[in-house]
Amino acid sequence: MVVTARAATLDLPGDVMVACVADEEHSSHGTEEVLAHFTADAGIVTEPSHLELTLAHKGFAWFDVVIEGRAAHGSRPDLGIDAIAQAGHFLVAIDDWMARLGQGRRHPLLGSGTVHASMIRGGEEASSYPAECRITIERRTIPGETGDMVETELAEILDRLAAMVPDFSYRLERGLVRAPFEAERDHPIVTILSKHATAVLGGTPVVRGEPFWTDCALMQAAGIPVLMFGADGGGAHAATEWTTIESVQSLVAILEATVAEFCS
Question: How far is the C-alpha of 245 from the C-alpha of 36, rounded, in Å?
Fold first, then answer.
């Protein structure tokens, strides 16, 4: 906001917009709404990045796998199929999947994709066989991987289990999918910001990737070249989040110089 206020005094031929959005911590509906009505020649997401250039981050895909059993009284194993016990086969397969990802394709800034089981729910009471067990998984993706690719991977794993394990049956439900992000390194917004960061900081800024997701991916998908560059600090999502005044002052100087050159 300080940078934009200063830019308003520079008589720039280009416009500068600030988007303050809701729901950034979950589905980013606020950013989606902004992008439905506005566009830009470039964007800067000012998530805290320790004054380092963040030029890539991972995406994610959420899926619910419902392992289907057959409800019965606990005294009737001849009638019941234990969905929780059947789910154990899938949990072992997730570990194997993670190991394969670690040995597979790697991104220079982000490493490999990952997968883990996030939540598990099943059963009604101690005296019955559970009819289903629901497992939520999260697959973190790198550039080049899509939600459709993850769904195909997951279905292949489950189909193999269905072919190998007696009475193994499942349903697959797709949840939220967000794409990974990788900046255009030679785009003017990247080269101009890098130049001014070097001048203000007294050295070339570190280039980094992040394992988490940001609105950079949505802006890029909307056709806006973008990077992430923000202040120093720590404690994200903790009771005490903090930044340093010095890094905020440096950030303002870098962004002001970047806006002045890019918008001219």
Answer: 34
Query: Rg of the chain's alpha carbons, rounded to an integer?
Result: 24
CB 209 within 8 A of CB 55: yes
Identify the residue whose tokens are 């559970």.
Answer: 130
Q: Which residues in the chain come in under a pLDDT of 70?
A: none
Q: What is the pLDDT of residue 238?
A: 87
pTM: 0.92
Residue 132: HSE in the Cβ half-sphere, 13 Å Cα cutoff: 11
**147 vs 151: CA distance, rounded Å:** 6
Q: Which two tokens stand for residue 77?
A: 């194993």
Which domains are assigned to the chain?
2-56+182-262 (3.40.630.10), 59-178 (3.30.70.360)
pLDDT at 236 (0 to 100)? 83
Q: Which of 177, 184, 255, 195 is nearest to 223 (CA)?
A: 184
Q: CA angle 121-152-103, nearest 5°?
A: 90
Q: Which amino acid is at 144?
A: G
